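Assess this one:

_____
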Amino acid sequence: MSEKIREIYKEGPESDEEFDESEEFIEEDVEIFDEPEFSDADEYAFEEASDEDAEFEARMQRRRARVRGRKRRRKILGVILIIVLFATLATMCGKDIVRLKAENIALQKQQKELEEERDRLKQEVENSGNREYVQEQARKQFKLLNPGELLFTFEEE
């Protein structure tokens, strides 16, 4: 508020002695409690003050809007960061899961091959006491021959 408006509101009885609760006093000094009259200069000052107040209020609203915008951006950024964090963790865990499944499949395949080899070796152990099997293995592995036999070898393509 401008200084002139403040002065107008301050005008009135200087001391408490002038205030009397009688009806006479109220009727005589009604003008004091009525709305003060403004001159053109006072009205201009009041408009200036209200313009300043309006400007101040507009600035405050813009500032509040900026603060709300910042808070909103921070919240959105926080949510995005959390989503990215979870996506990264899920991706890392997903890669591990895929790698472990592939490794599991390879190990199962290797286990199957080893079981087949074990069965073959068991069969060999069982046949090791058989004379025909021993002769067959001697011919294959050591290229041994019985007396009177001829060995023919062919080049493999």
Remarks:
- The two ends are 112 Å apart (CA to CA).
